[in-house]
Amino acid sequence: MKKKVLLMGKSGSGKTSMRSIIFANYIARDTTRLAATIDVEHSHVRFLGNLALNLWDCGGQEAFMKDYFSSQRDHIFRNVEVLIYVFDVESHNLKEDMAYYSSCVEAIQQKSDKAKIFCLIHKMDLVPEDQRDKIFAQREAELKHASQPMSLTCFPTSIWDETLYKAWSSIVYALIPNISVIENRLQKFCGICEADEVVLFERATFLVISHASTKQHKDIHRFEKISNIIKQFKLICSKGGAHFQNMEVRNSNFSAFIDLFTQNTYVMVIMSDPTIQSSATLVNINVARKHFEKYLQHTETELKPF
After folding, report:
1. Higher pLDDT, 272 or 64
2. pLDDT tens across 197-222, in order?
3. Residue ranges of the alpha helices (H) in the chain?
4. 72 closest CA partner among 118, 113, 44, 40
């Protein structure tokens, strides 16, 4: 089951850099070597068994943008599941950016009216921290007005922090069939383990797929921070010729287990009860693995609860 995803925005907005970090294991400082996208670059990324993303990274040079809305209109905008439009927050030509975005929305409405639209207000690290919320709120309001009657979800992003993983995890989440069933099963697993929290990550990108919690947590960005940290650690391991399989972190407050779970996922289990032995948690992960493997290989099919 392929899902067509359009990645669009003006040249220099940061589309290819973010795609390379999420899907091609680049680190932020290495994206300066990337050249501008010419016309459309296609990537096929497999997620969760049957689900595959057909990612169209559309070059943002003016000549290409005009072609997308004229001679290539049907080819580009037909059968789209998700449109991701990237705005450079420091763009000096906001009026032109908005005009191109409005043209995208119009084309999506005509050719793929069921598509979900996400806008990423990018390079937010360049905005003074005390102004970020205000500027993001202004841009979000302008974009939601320009998107009518289509609905829109906006995220502030930067390649230098966890906000990029937050946005892309939310986008992938919107594409997963039967996500509510996955969440239900993960909640049951969390209860069986007597865990504080269980998080399911996609294996290659380490994007968050789903999570279940039994306790409140103050840090709402904790998942994306972990995604970023583990992704960087995996890259360091690979550069040293090692393969990342699992990790256990323990201190006086909690124990964290990160383990390869299914063919396409990692799982993280957080425990704060000191009376529960590590071996018991690892046994629970191993027992649950075959059940989740069976289900995640058939994301389109409802299975009976285990």
Report:
1. 272
2. 999 999 888 999 999 999 988 888 89
3. 15-23, 62-68, 73-77, 94-111, 132-147, 163-175, 179-193, 222-239, 278-296
4. 40
What is the predicted pLDDT for the residue at 299? Answer: 52
Residue of higher predicted confidence among 241 and 80:
80
Cβ 51 vs Cβ 203: under 8 Å: no
Residue 247's nearest CA partner among 239, 261, 117 is 261
pLDDT at 62: 82
Between the CA of residue 115 and those of 78, 140, 210, 252, 301, what are the distances in Å? 10, 19, 22, 47, 22
Q: Report how far residue 210's alpha carbon sits from residue 192's, in angstroms, rounded to the nearest whole number.
A: 17
272 burial class (0-12, 13-18, 19+ CB within 10 angstroms)?
Answer: middle
Residue-wise pLDDT tens digits, 76-106: 999 999 999 999 999 888 899 999 999 999 9
Using DSSP, state whether 87 is helix, strand or coil. strand
Q: Are 178 and 148 in contact (CB under 8 A)?
A: no
- The tokens for 149 are 């009657």
CB 162 within 8 A of CB 224: yes
Structure tokens at 165: 């993983």
CB 157 within 8 A of CB 124: yes
Backbone conformation region of residue 48, classed left if phi is above 0, alpha if psi is from -120 to 50, else beta: left
Could you give the CA distance from residue 255 to residue 277 in angstroms, rounded to a whole number? 10
Burial of residue 95, with CB atoms counted within 10 A of its CB: 0-12 exposed, 13-18 middle, 19 or more buried = exposed
The residue assigned the tokens 């099919």 is 301
pLDDT at 305 over 50: no
What's this model's pTM, rounded to 2 decimal places? 0.86
Q: Is 80 exceeded by the pLDDT of residue 297? A: no
Q: For 107-134, what is the mean pLDDT? A: 96
For the chain, the straight-line distance linking the first and the last C-alpha, in angstroms and rounded, comes to 25
